Amino acid sequence: MKIIMLGAPGAGKGTQAKMIAEKYGVPHISTGDIFRANIKNGTELGMEAKKYMDQGLLVPDELTVKILLDRVAGDDCKGGYVLDGFPRTIPQAEVLDKALEEIGDKIDFAVDVDVPDENIINRMGGRRACLGCGATYHLEHVPPKKEGICDTCGRELVLRDDDRPETVKNRLEVYHKQTQPLIAFYQQKGILKTVDGTADRKDVFQAITAILG
Ligand code: AP5
Ligand code: MG
What we know:
The protein is α/β, with parallel strands linked by helices. 48% of the residues lie in helices and 15% in strands.
């Protein structure tokens, strides 16, 4: 099963993608996580991506597409995957479709986690992320068992650089302009499914599993 998660920054794509990956036994692929891992390791790709991410801008398609296509060509992706944060532009979606078409494959569902902008601002300020395993927490809604420490891998939790309020505003603008058109794109293909992302994360997950089967 091949799934795309759509939704504004902070809508809960990562939270749900992680749960989907566990339940269906497919890899969770987040381009944001891949970039952050590269930044942490000081790679050339990481340095280049950081310039854009810190401003809340999208990393150019040329960089992003290659990384994603390499990743989904991995052996662990044969049984499917859940994409979180890719595609984010129409050209990215078209490249992915074409690559899949070439191997006689396609995306099964594009799940849009729908959350209004007002709710997003609050979520981002409270989010804490683990740079070790990519797990995300929220100071109020999803606190870790031990303050500041990841439940899964024991590493320190941080406020992402791009979760500062001024950057969040930019990310939302970029989302509306460049990413939201993907909703109509997948609707036309007949694979768009929308869930109410303002509900409790367990209820959001239930709505998603009802769709995926
Ligand atoms: P990326 O890492 O993908 O960030 P994003 O899309 O901005 O999304 P987030 O990770 O911020 O939010 P999320 O929807 O995953 O929400 P989460 O589950 O964490 O990308 C970062 C940057 O990398 C981009 O800005 C861009 O520069 C670059 N990039 C990445 N991919 C790219 C691409 N394809 N092309 C170009 N550039 C790219 O949840 C948010 C918070 O809410 C958490 O604290 C969580 O605990 C909490 N929460 C989750 N669900 C609920 C709920 N139901 N109720 C209450 N709280 C909840
Ligand atoms: Mg995420």
